[in-house]
Write a structure and sequence with these properties.
- It is a single chain.
- The protein has helices spanning 26-61, 65-117, 130-158, 165-174, 179-190, 197-216, 230-256, 264-282, 291-294, 297-326, 335-355, 362-378, 392-404, 406-428.
- α1 crosses α5 (179-190), α5 (179-190) runs antiparallel to α11 (335-355) and α10 (297-326) packs antiparallel against α13 (392-404).
- It is built from 14 helices and no strands.
- It is mostly helical.
- Helices cover 73% and strands 0% of the residues.
- The radius of gyration is 22 Å and the shape is globular.
């Protein structure tokens, strides 16, 4: 779309850093929607393929479980840290540059991973340790995943009619749920006989396609302004170090167990770093983190509801899937199991898109909780003699609930955020 086009008042960007919302022709909307879905799924693959193949990666590189845990730490710490900066990066540099930088990092990450898996580094003349390259690659993937989720969300919004923009919001966030089950389904066909080269080549191909798509059809331009301040980098330094240390505790604590003495040091760094960052942001005139929003009743209720739902949904990954993994079932034996989960997730996403009512957001969440309770109750009698087919119905219900509650929860949080923002503006006028 030409930059000379003059946007009408209703087509203007909602906020600085977001793209404009022009009235696209129907054909262009379809292409925006398809690109948004593709980019969103590619973003979800960044974590999904790591989770699905971490054991194989450890085996190929000759790593212990603790060393493999540092690969997960690398992904999670960068994924959590960069999220804090994404909003201001878009505000200052715009969506066009933001999207191209994001995809460039993705190409770099997937190139490194393919280089490691292809054994091109296994020569006497190259002294780079593949393990450390894998940690760097996963760190880049973590940064990219956050940016690509936002990018896919904006493309989905562009592909929806004005009256259905909330459906684009639900679709964009719902796509994140497909990463792990899709990765579990396709990994056995790509990583045949434990060879991961095709898997990473697949990731690199997805990155190339995404890079081409966003250049063929760019997001409409938006407004930019200079928003970064020197104090942002001080605050981000404390916050990022705290989140990184917290990622170390949460990942390595599960592997080495929580009583490991040295874990107390990253835990102390996490508490001190995050506390200092929040104190700085609370007392700033132009904060990077809107702590006032976080302390409001609506946002606290939103965060508590989301946290409780994620704890309930851990039954699927830690319970059923964890049990089957401990019983010796590999990815190739669980393809149908995860195909059932994908089918349930897709059905829930479609129903949520077309049925979510902004005036009645509590009932779908209650319905989702009831489905989780029913599915969990059905799995009460499992034992070491249980087989994957015994979990199909229960995990179908839980997977359906996992995606179905996302739409109402996102809308509730979005509406609560707007209400708090309006209240703050009125107070400070």
């Amino acid at each position: 779309m030409s930059n000379e086009y003059q946007f009408k008042p209703h087509e203007q960007p909602i906020m600085v850093g977001s793209p404009a919302n022009p009235d696209h022709p129907a054909r262009r909307k379809v292409f925006y929607l398809l690109i948004g879905i593709f980019v969103g799924l590619t973003a979800s693959f960044q974590n999904g393929l790591l989770v699905a193949n971490l054991t194989q990666i450890q085996g190929q590189l000759g790593l212990t479980p603790a060393e493999g845990g540092w690969i997960s730490v690398s992904y999670n710490m960068t994924n959590a840290c960069i999220t804090v900066l994404l909003y201001k990066i878009r505000q200052q540099f715009g969506m066009s540059l933001f999207s191209k930088i994001t995809l460039s990092f993705l190409l770099a990450a997937t190139s490194l991973q393919w280089l490691i898996s292809s054994h091109l580094l296994d020569t006497p003349n190259i002294s780079i340790e593949p393990y450390y390259l894998e940690i760097v690659a996963r760190g880049l993937s973590g940064m990219v995943a956050s940016g690509m989720t936002v990018l896919g969300l904006f493309y989905c919004l562009q592909g929806m009619p004005t009256v259905k923009r909330t459906s684009g919001l639900i679709l964009g966030f719902g796509l994140v749920q497909f990463g792990i089950p899709l990765s579990r389904v396709i990994s056995p066909y790509l990583a045949i006989d434990g060879q991961l080269e095709n898997l990473f080549l697949f990731q690199f191909g997805l990155a190339l396609i995404c890079f081409g798509l966003i250049n063929i059809l760019e997001l409409p331009p938006g407004n930019t302004e200079k928003v970064f301040e020197k104090l942002d980098f001080v605050s981000f330094g404390f916050f990022a170090s705290g989140l990184a240390a917290l990622a170390v505790v949460l990942v390595q604590g599960r592997i080495l167990w929580w009583t490991t003495p040295w874990l107390v040091y990253p835990l102390m760094i996490a508490i001190v770093g995050i506390s200092i960052a929040l104190w700085i942001e609370t007392h700033r005139k132009n904060p990077m983190l809107q702590v006032r929003w976080m302390r409001s009743r609506n946002i606290i209720a939103f965060m508590v509801t989301g946290a409780v739902m994620r704890i309930l949904l851990s039954e699927q990954n830690v319970g059923a899937a964890g049990l089957l993994a401990n019983l010796g079932y590999g990815n190739d034996q669980l393809v149908t199991f995860y195909a059932v989960i994908i089918a349930a997730s897709a059905l829930a996403l479609i129903i949520s898109i077309f049925s979510t009512n902004a005036m009645d957001l509590r009932r779908p969440v209650i319905f989702a909780v009831a489905l989780i309770a029913l599915g969990s109750w059905m799995d009460v009698g499992v034992s070491i003699n249980s087989a994957p087919y015994m979990f199909y119905l229960s995990q179908f219900l839980i997977a359906f609930a996992a995606v179905y509650f996302m739409g109402p929860l996102v809308l509730k949080g979005f509406c609560g955020l707007l209400a708090v923002a309006l209240h703050i503006l009125l107070v400070f006028q």
